[in-house]
Amino acid sequence: MIAPRWTRWLVGALTGVLLTLPSATPTYAAAARIKDIVDVEGIRENQLVGYGLVVGLNGTGDSLNNSPFTKQSLQSMLERLGVNTAGENVRTANVAAVMVTANLPPFATQGSRIDVSVAALGDADSLQGGTLLVTPLVGADGQVYAIAQGPVVINGFKAEGDAAQIISGVPTTGRISSGALIEQEIGFHLGALTSLRLALRNPDLTTARRIALAVNDFIGAPTATPEDPATVRLTLPPGFNGNIVDLLTDIEQLLVQTDQQAKIVIDENSGIIVMGKDVRVSSVAVAQSNLTVTIAENPEVVQPNPLSFGVTAVEPNTNLNANLSETALQVVQESVTLQELVDGLNALGIGPRDLIAILQAIKATGALQAEIEVL
């Protein structure tokens, strides 16, 4: 059966309209989970530090005459063990004074173990083969939270002879895996809280508001409130089936489209330039010139004439060359995307270090809509 002409015309018109409509599936920028862009108040590490002795070194320890603190520590340790060395001339080279550092993880329980780092404090040549003796590790409040002890593993080595030596890595630093035993816990009851704060790792007003909206839409109650660009406060909603830990577990997987400030980061030492995707530039004209000065010294030896009783002399001979290279005035068109901006700057045909100065000059004119951060 053949459809009437007006039916075929209507189907064709509707098909043309549908082909010209935009796609029904919107495209979004990359999103991140809430747990990857925020830190939870109270869930943090704490730094520990201690002073100790590494023994068992093969003659690569501190020279006690140049490291009086090592000698005093050694004598004090021996006296506590019942060995009296007062007035004796201790000349061992198998001991090194070290600083021991560690990070106490959040919610670490008493009896669990953590890794520690060891670094020589005196003039020891290497910690290879050494063993750290019992070392208390204290926090910022002066209390002991862990005790470290064990064999030190270093990442380098040192070998030497009478006329040469080879050093690989840093043999005066090392690490002890599971080398500290936690003796005291930090009292913090996360599950007992009814309100806490989320700290954004990259503070931004838009991102903070989007996090709050995502959480409130998921819970269905006013649970999250953005307080500032770096803080979102969570409050346990009435009737919620669980505590604050359950709430964090429910929302940490939510995806949020993050926003960021337009920024250009410049490392002048290495010539590295990193631009954010929102960097824009208005139309500007740029010209650049380089002045290269070359100085070469070619001294000439002048011999005296025969029978003149003269002496041989050296006369200076300097070659000085100045080269000025200039580029014509180039127009960098107004950019809408980062790729257009990069293409416009690359069209100038200049190196990264000259590009740093040009970007700073464009910023001074007000044509660059971005913040420049110099490392």
Provide a compact summary of the structure:
This protein is 21% helix and 36% strand.
Write a structural description.
- With 375 residues, the protein is of the alpha+beta class.
- It has 3 domains: 46-182, no CATH class; 190-256, Alpha-Beta Plaits, CATH 3.30.70; 263-301 and 313-374, no CATH class.
- Helices cover 21% and strands 36% of the residues.
- The protein has 7 helices and 26 strands.
- The chain has helices at 5-20, 34-37, 68-80, 205-219, 244-251, 338-346, 352-365; strands at 32-33, 38-40, 46-55, 95-104, 113-120, 131-138, 144-151, 153-154, 157-160, 165-168, 173-182, 195-200, 224-228, 231-235, 255-256, 263-267, 272-275, 280-281, 284-286, 289-297, 300-302, 313-315, 318-326, 330-332, 368-369, 371-374.
- The protein has a 6-stranded antiparallel barrel. The protein has a 4-stranded antiparallel sheet with strand order 2-12-14-13. A 3-stranded mixed sheet has the order 17-16-26, covered by helices on one side.
- A hairpin with a 4-residue loop joins strand 16 and strand 17 (272-275).
- The longest helix has 16 residues, at 5-20.
- It is flat.
- Mean pLDDT is 80; it is low at 5-28.
